[in-house]
Design brief:
518 residues, mainly alpha, CellSynth/LPSAsmb/PSIAsmb, TPR repeat, 80% helix
Length: 518
């Protein structure tokens, strides 16, 4: 009986001692190995009872008294981890991994434990970022990096958050670190974000260096056009062209991309004052446009660019072809046909010019310029009636148009003179009268008209048509009232008509004119 009591008392004392653990020796705060052993035993009991604060306290004593104790580091690290004391957990697990004698199963467990904690922190950071809580996201990701600083996914996401929250310098620094650790992270998107960040912090050399890397990596039209826009934003048109040319090489039938390239090259050529420097830009605009059109890309502006480049270079046949293609792509407009006709005029190909202008008038009968050009071609080809009709249409559309008026006058003068030579005095009179309606004070044409009246009168007189002769001589005398020959012929005609009074009066005027030497 007494012996059983003693046994129970001993067990109770041992258990109480284990639960109490080490509380510090008198005058010496540093625990010994023995103290560490006692603390570890106490910690095991507290762990079984899930009294975590006490277990953690005893384990801290155990690792302080015996830093080589793998079990103490292992158990303490797990408790730290479960209580989200990440940095302390990592410290204990690092200490464990540094020991010479460690159970392999402990190392495997630690590895999995750290991995799970890393995933939890990383996913927590990602979720917080998506939920619009960037501060929480940064906190979680920093802990993930404490757990495993070699996993650059956390660095990459952290840099994204910094950049998204306008902490650009931090974002650049973090992303640079991630790329240095893991070049495999680099892709077009990463470099584009980094280049934008460099632009925001004003580091253009680094930005251009990064964009050049994008050019080497990008194989998608979308990425290449985004790169072109980035070059545009920093005022690098030549590199912008390079990016667009690569995009066109990837997708030669993408009309939008080809158009962007052609517009850029053509604009640079037009604004370049040095013709030698402008020439390469024209070449590139022409190449992009002509290749796309040859591939049946139906973008009218490309045909216009090709036509204009050829026209500026005096290559009118090629220009006419592209202006015609432009009309084919946009058949409701007359301007391309007008321009094609102008090219043919310069080539002296009047038949083609005429066809182009005539087709243009069918599309737009209100375009005065087209009618004027048609008149020129018709007149040159000998169709004076057609030319006259074209000029008349111009004047209807644009009263006072000097070119059309001059065209009309030249036709009237030509018709009058030709009719005069053919002794077709009626037509000559009509032509010269029409001329003088437009330009009434032209002395030369007035003289031609008066001569036409006189010759018409003589022709009618000789044919016995005294009425016709009388009218013609009257008109002549109205224009030249003191012309002796005209007055004499008018007097004779009056006499033959039996109009003696008028004959005598005109005869007296003739004598007066003769006496005055007129």
């Amino acid at each position: 009986m007494n012996r059983s009591f003693r046994t129970i008392g001993m067990v109770t004392g041992l258990l109480a001692g284990a639960l109490l653990g080490w509380t510090g020796a008198q005058g010496d705060d540093k625990p010994s190995k023995g103290d560490a052993s006692t603390a570890l035993r106490s910690a095991r009991v507290y762990i079984q009872q899930q009294v975590w604060d006490k277990a953690m306290e005893q384990l801290e004593i155990a690792v302080a008294g015996d830093p080589e104790n793998a079990e103490a580091h292992y158990l303490l690290g797990k408790i730290y981890g479960d209580r989200d004391m990440t940095e302390k957990m990592v410290r204990e697990f690092d200490a464990l991994k540094a020991l010479k004698e460690v159970k392999p199963e402990h190392l495997e467990e630690v590895k999995g434990y750290l991995s799970r904690h890393w995933s939890s922190r990383f996913n927590g950071g990602l979720a917080a970022f998506k939920a619009g809580k960037p501060e929480k996201a940064v906190e979680e990701l920093k802990m993930a990096l404490v757990l495993d600083g070699t996993k650059t996914e956390a660095l990459k996401l952290l840099s994204d958050i910094y950049l998204a929250t306008k902490q650009t310098a931090l974002g650049v620094e973090t992303l640079e670190k991630a790329l240095a650790m893991n070049p495999g992270l680099a892709d077009v998107g990463v470099y584009m974000n980094l280049s934008k960040a460099y632009q925001e912090v004003g580091n253009k050399p680094k930005q251009l260096e990064t964009l050049q890397k994008v050019l080497g990596l990008a194989k998608d039209v979308g990425d290449l056009t985004a790169l072109a826009r980035a070059y545009e934003s920093v005022g690098e048109p030549n590199r912008q062209i390079e990016a667009l040319e690569k995009a066109v090489a990837v997708a030669p039938t993408n009309g939008g991309v080809v158009l962007d390239l052609a517009v850029l090259c053509f604009t640079l050529a037009e604004t370049e004052q040095d013709s030698l420097r402008a020439a390469p830009y024209y070449d590139r605009a022409l190449k992009a446009s002509s290749q796309a059109l040859a591939a049946d890309v139906k973008v009218p502006k490309l045909a216009e660019f090709a036509a204009q480049v050829h026209f500026r270079r005096g290559q009118y046949r090629e220009a006419a072809g592209y202006f015609t293609r432009l009309w084919e792509l946009n058949p409701s407009t007359a301007a391309p046909l007008l321009n094609a006709g102008l090219c043919y005029q310069r080539l002296k190909d009047d038949a083609q010019a005429k066809a182009a202008f005539q087709k243009a008038t069918q599309i737009d009968s209100t375009n005065a310029e087209v009618w004027r050009r048609l008149g020129e071609v018709l007149l040159k080809g000998g169709d004076s009636d057609g030319a006259l009709a074209a000029y008349e249409r111009v004047i209807q559309l644009k009263p006072g148009d000097s070119a059309a008026l001059m065209g009309q006058l030249s036709i009237y003068a030509q018709k009058g003179q030709e009719s005069f030579k053919r002794k077709d005095y009626d037509r000559a009179v009509s032509a010269f009268q029409a001329f003088l309606k437009v330009q009434p004070n032209n002395a030369g044409v007035q003289d031609w008209l008066s001569r036409s009246y006189f010759n018409k009168g003589m022709d009618r007189f000789n044919k016995g048509d005294y009425d016709g002769a009388l009218e013609a001589f009257r008109r002549f005398v109205e224009m030249k009232p003191n012309d002796y020959d005209g007055l004499v012929q008018l007097s004779k005609t009056y006499g033959l008509k039996g109009m003696m009074k008028e004959a005598q009066e005109v005869s007296r005027r003739a004598q007066a004119a003769q006496s005055q030497g007129k």
